[in-house]
Design goal:
Blueprint (H helix, E strand, L loop, with lengths): L4 H10 L4 H23 L8 H38 L2 H13 L5 H20 L12 H32 L1 H22 L10 H28 L2 H8 L2 H13 L5 H21 L2 H5 L3
Helix pairs in contact: 1-8, 2-3, 2-7, 2-8, 3-5, 3-6, 3-7, 4-5, 4-6, 4-9, 5-9, 5-11, 6-7, 6-8, 6-9, 7-8
Length: about 290
């Protein structure tokens, strides 16, 4: 579901939507849809204690807002391929911090698979870049801003994974998703106008359709499935599995926009799929399930 973000955003750019407003509107619509559903079917979603507000609404909301802004800087400075490659350093970050913060195992295999999948994701998006030019010719200040933005988006994603591992078993996936999204909307709604980038609505009916699809798939469904996964398995393998996103994006770009992968891109795709599959084969063995943390 996250892999649909690139193609839908590309369609939104073609409709004239400003890049800085996409994150705000998609999170706002996703939050509104979840609130409407909860009002009819699960009103206890709105009940939360002070600790939950601080951790999910404030910290989680800050992470959502940081991701939305930082990733756009990553794309603008380092290009789509460079930003996506930097974003998928997150599984390595999760593998490193999950042990001291959550007590999860940091096995050599987990770390090796995280690195392999990260490298494969970078090869996939690099091999799928238009014209294969990569970052050649990008001005150094712009490139540095893009690298910082990409790494900050990765840090936000990694921290959200660790936070979800703690919060979802206590509050549930729906409550985690709603309160962090609501916090992100509030923070973006305040910060973006102050920064001179007040989010404007889509200028066309087609833009609203793409934005609704982006909110439903890339915000509500994707995050619910992600949190449901992190409730059942540990943070490190969850983050590794989620790295399938750029592969999905590359395949959708191939099917919808005829953006062909290079040989390097296909090798990266196979590396990602192989790394994820190997991780789940290992995690699902009786030895792994019964081994102590």
């Amino acid at each position: 579901m996250w892999g649909t973000t690139g193609p839908l955003s590309t369609a939104l750019y073609a409709e004239g939507q400003a890049i800085t407003g996409i994150g705000f509107w998609r999170v706002l619509l996703g939050t509104a849809g979840l609130a409407l559903w909860a009002a009819f079917f699960q009103r206890d979603l709105f009940r939360i204690d002070k600790q939950g507000i601080l951790l999910m609404g404030l910290l989680g909301g800050f992470l959502v807002a940081l991701f939305e802004v930082a990733y756009q800087f990553g794309i603008a400075g380092a290009g789509v391929a460079g930003a996506a490659a930097l974003l998928y350093t997150a599984p390595v970050m999760v593998a490193l911090v999950a042990k001291p913060l959550l007590g999860e195992r940091l096995t050599p295999l987990r770390l090796a698979l995280a690195v392999a999948v990260m490298v494969g994701a970078a090869m996939t998006v690099w091999g799928g870049s238009q014209g294969g030019a990569g970052l050649t010719g990008v001005a150094l200040p712009s490139l540095l801003a893009g690298v910082v933005g990409g790494l900050l988006s990765a840090m936000s994603y990694a921290t959200t994974t660790v936070l979800a591992r703690w919060a979802v078993p206590r509050y549930g996936a729906f409550r985690m998703l709603f309160w962090e999204a609501l916090g992100g909307v509030v923070i973006l709604g305040v910060v973006l106008p102050l920064a001179g980038h007040a989010p404007a609505p889509p200028p066309t009916a087609g833009g609203w359709i793409y934005l609704l699809a982006l909110a439903l798939g890339g915000v509500v469904v994707a995050n619910f499935l992600f949190f449901a996964g992190v409730r059942r398995i540990e943070a490190a393998p969850t983050a590794v599995a989620a790295t399938i996103e750029p592969v999905v994006g590359a395949l959708l770009a191939l099917l919808l926009f005829s953006q062909h992968l290079t040989a390097l891109g296909w090798i990266g795709l196979l590396t990602v799929v192989g790394g994820v599959a190997a991780g789940y084969l290992k995690e699902g063995t009786p030895e792994s399930e019964g081994s102590p943390p």
